[in-house]
Amino acid sequence: MFTYKHCFHQHYIMQKIGFVFLLFLSLRLYAQKISPDDLKELESMESAMSTPAKNMVFAEEASTRFEADSVFTKEFVKALKIRNSFYFPFDSIITVSKLMAPDSSFRIFTWELKRDESYFRQKGAIQMRTKDGSLKLFPLLDMSDYAENPVDSVRSNLNWIGAIYYNLIMTENRGKKYYTLFGFDDNNFMSTRKWLEVLTFNDTGQPVFGGQYFDYKEDSLKSPQPAYRFLLEFKKDAGTRLNYDPETKLILFDHLVSESNETQKKFTLVPDGDFEAFKWQGGRWLHIDTAFHVQIQLGNEPRPKPLFDESGNPDEELLLKQSEQNEEKQPAPKKKVPPNALDEKK
Asked: Which end of the chain is least crowded, N or C, by CB within 10 Å?
């Protein structure tokens, strides 16, 4: 069954790769931004938070998970109040998604709390970067329980439609920045949800979730227009893609079909192998029915030019060219670095 724990493990691998790089940058920022005493305190608090952070997701009993969440939340806010905590990565808190805005103006934390297979709720906060290093925090309060139609309105951080965010991209239009969030929600024991949520900030700096940014024709699978966020709901164990592809600059997502020909029953929807997409244009995400139009006839698949003919005789000229290409791909020999070279670069 595809759940937040599965999503968390996949996200954790990606997160660790990213945080190796971010941690390197952060360590350099520490010396400039975080005082030695504050850094020591942050590291100590992070270590103390790691156990309740794990227990709020992996503990067997719901009461233990809720108690761990309470402890973690209180300690996390205390840690964030330390001056310049914005530059501390909290990379050992592995059950919390941590996404930095591409322009480093804010970062967003999200995590999930489970009571049982029918009750999943998300929690989170947005931490803004401030000039003086003080804390400017917007808590995210999941009000999904009170939303009959979760796509029908613009919302604030106080009536947020909860999700675990696993990606964040920034687009612009007429000088305004738009942050598109990609979210995961375990929802219930029958279906899973993935979200596209456009985050902006108003003239007073308050976060605004949603707007009429998704332009698509209504069908039996998509929420009726106007839709202020995009929802993809599908069968619980159906691995379904919804993510940004930087090469094509498209948001790609699986085209879904009903296993029982009952599209209104979201728990029957599964991918059929085709992809739909959204393209950013004029301040909106415009829908593309079929993301890939290239069709290859059977027997005409792309293949490398053979190095040998049908009789097994080598093509000497092609072999020579291939050999030269292979040599060009060989990495240059590593230069020996003097023992103190790294210290000199610091």
From this structure: C
